[in-house]
């Protein structure tokens, strides 16, 4: 993949369009000043919910461990359900 390169002047004149295109394409943009690469703009990774982040967890666990993990996460193993201040002695 070839990274798109723009000049610092082009960036200054078209910042909104450059950022919009970078976000839409999801690709970084290199910035040049006087024919020298000086910076690279990289889009942030998309945010995920906890459900999305853990969606493939079941594929990494064997069935027994997955069941135990699910029980633990639901509090069926006698875990204390009250919230406590971890800094309080």
Give the helices and strands, then pairings:
Elements: E1 4-7, H1 8-13, H2 15-25, E2 29-33, E3 36-41, H3 50-53, H4 57-60, H5 63-74
Parallel strand pairs: 1-2
Antiparallel strand pairs: 2-3
What can you see in these coordinates?
By secondary structure, this protein is of the alpha+beta class. The chain has a domain at 4-41: YefM-like domain (YefM-like fold), CATH 3.40.1620.10. It is built from five helices and three strands. Strands 1-2-3 form a three-stranded mixed sheet. The longest helix is centred in the last third of the chain and has 12 residues, at 63-74. The mean pLDDT is 82.
What's the CATH architecture name of one domain? 3-Layer(aba) Sandwich
Walk across the major sheet and give the strand order.
Answer: 1-2-3
Tell me about the largest β-sheet: 3 strands, mixed
The residue fraction in helices comes out at: 40-55%
Q: Count every beta strand, where a strand is a DSSP E run of 2 or more residues.
A: 3
Strand content: 15-25%
Please tell me how large the radius of gyration is.
Answer: 23 Å
User: What's the CATH superfamily of one domain, by name?
Assistant: YefM-like domain
How many DSSP helices? 5
Taking pLDDT < 50 over at least 5 consecutive residues as the criterion, the unreliable ranges are: none
CATH class category of one domain: Alpha Beta
Series of secondary-structure elements, N-terminal to C-terminal = EHHEEHHH
Distance between the termini: 55 Å
What class would the helix/strand composition place it in? alpha+beta
**And the CATH topology of one domain?**
YefM-like fold
- Molecular shape: elongated
Mean pLDDT: 82
């Amino acid at each position: 993949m070839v990274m798109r390169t723009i000049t610092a002047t082009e960036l200054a004149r078209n910042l909104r369009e450059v950022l919009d295109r970078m976000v839409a394409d999801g690709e970084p943009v290199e910035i040049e000043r006087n024919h020298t690469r000086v910076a690279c703009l990289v889009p942030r990774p998309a945010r995920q919910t906890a459900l999305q982040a853990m969606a493939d967890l079941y594929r990494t666990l064997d069935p027994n461990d997955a069941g135990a993990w699910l029980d633990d996460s639901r509090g069926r193993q006698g875990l204390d359900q009250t919230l406590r201040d971890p800094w309080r002695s």
